[in-house]
Design goal:
Elements (H helix, E strand, L loop, with lengths): L4 E2 L10 H12 L10 H20 L7 E4 L2 H15 L4 E5 L4 H12 L4 E4 L9 H10 L4 E5 L13 H10 L3 E5 L11 H4 L3 E5 L10 E5 L25 H16 L1 H22 L3 E4 L8 E6 L4 H10 L2 E2 L1 E2 L1 E3 L4 E3 L1 H5 L4 H4 L2 E5 L6 H16 L2
Bound molecules: pyridoxal-5'-phosphate.
Length: 378
């Protein structure tokens, strides 16, 4: 068996060693409950405070605007349902290519009687601005919350968030962005973007799994996610996961410090992979906008099957992801690939290769030669 090549960094990332080492004392020796008043717990309280400061600084927020959660899904649920809970008759505008953490939360809003408008995207996955503006103006002041992702998890497209926020604010709407794929990979300044809420997840930026945060700008009305104790200003009760919070902060700080260097390196790998793919003369389309997450490569091969490719590469020790999945009868093309209208003879053959700083040129060469072996022998 060949050595493993992990090229699915949009699904999750390897834990940063420094983050891991920073977590250890809080797993073993410093196990106090951060809410207790004795000195033994003070270290945990201070560690949480320090982590909140570090994370706030990374996105230019204030520490009290950072709320720790169990990850991206919880942050997304809280932003939408929590804002709805604090604002009667809250309607939502979102896009058709959001992650299911948003789409299924919106379904829940609809089941509860709320209105959700789903705005379409163009062939690159960019939100259609005229449709977005129409949705805002048609709702005649009724729309309270807009939720549009900062970067798409399948095709890597980075949305023009600053413009979308401006239009939303002009209509009195509050703006949430699911930035789970973007945080730690591209520069984010919540004040420059002017977003009101932002979701993030540690395991996407080399932090531990099961922890994330929601940025909630001061003054945004939202109801608690968990009722109970006084943790997280009483809005997200429950004893804090100190090791995970500490690990998340170290991982984010490290990623932010190395962001430009990482992006340059990963983009060079991406260029190498694509030029080799073009050289191979395999018929394929690259999906996504020019403004894209570093290392995000979504390609559709003509008359192929993404799920078959995933399994064949798996047998060669390569982890990638697909934009389609077979159920017992049909190949189901993902909602994102459908929304950007990849031609039918290409859509089923969609895969996502997401490279990270741990990948090498040799990885890239093996990915392309393995794809050629499979696709040329089909
Ligand atoms: N939002 C986006 C865009 C994602 O890519 C993901 C995970 O893939 C999530 C939300 C969910 O995050 P988590 O796995 O932390 O719940």
């Amino acid at each position: 068996m060949n050595e493993l090549i992990y090229a699915d960094n949009a699904a999750t990332t390897k834990l940063d060693r420094e983050a891991y080492e920073a977590m250890i004392p809080f797993l073993l020796e410093e196990y106090g409950n951060a809410s207790q008043q004795y000195t033994f717990s003070k270290k945990c309280r201070n560690a949480i405070k320090e982590a909140r400061n570090v994370i706030a600084e990374c996105i230019n927020a204030k520490p009290e605007e950072i709320f720790f959660t169990s990850g991206g899904t919880e942050s997304d649920n809280w932003a939408i349902k929590g804002f709805g809970g604090a604002n009667r008759n809250c309607n939502v505008i979102t896009s058709v290519i959001e992650h299911h953490a948003i789409l299924n939360t919106c379904k829940s809003v609809q089941r509860a009687g709320g209105q959700v408008i789903y705005v379409g995207v163009d062939s690159k996955g960019l939100v259609l601005i005229p449709d977005f503006q129409k949705a805002l103006s048609d709702s005649k002041g009724k729309v309270a919350l807009v939720s549009i992702m900062l970067a798409n998890n399948e095709i890597g497209t980075i949305e023009p968030i600053k413009d979308l926020v401006r239009f939303s604010h002009e209509h009195g709407a509050v703006f949430h962005t699911d930035a789970v794929q973007a945080v730690g990979h591209i520069e984010i300044d919540v004040n420059e973007l002017q977003v009101d809420m932002l979701s993030a997840s540690a395991h996407k930026f080399n932090g531990p799994k099961g922890v994330g945060f929601l940025f909630i700008r001061n003054g945004i009305p939202i109801v608690s996610h968990n009722d109970g104790g006084a943790q997280e200003h009483g809005l997200r009760a429950g004893t804090e996961n100190v090791p995970a919070i500490v690990g998340m902060a170290v991982a984010l700080k490290n990623n932010c410090e190395k962001m430009n260097e990482n992006a340059r390196y990963v983009n060079s790998l991406e260029e190498r992979l694509l030029s080799k793919l073009y050289e191979s003369k395999l018929p394929f389309i690259r999906n996504g906008a020019d403004d894209r997450l570093p290392g995000s490569i979504n390609v559709s091969f003509k008359d192929s099957d993404g799920e078959m490719l995933l399994h064949r590469l798996d047998l060669m020790g390569i982890c990638i992801s697909t934009g389609s999945a077979c159920d017992s009868k049909n190949t189901q093309v993902s909602h994102v690939i459908k929304a950007i209208e990849v031609p039918k003879d290409y859509a089923n053959g969609t895969i996502r290769i997401s490279l990270g700083p741990n990948n090498t040129q040799e990885d890239v060469d093996r990915i392309v030669s393995s794809l050629c072996r499979v696709l040329k022998s089909e």
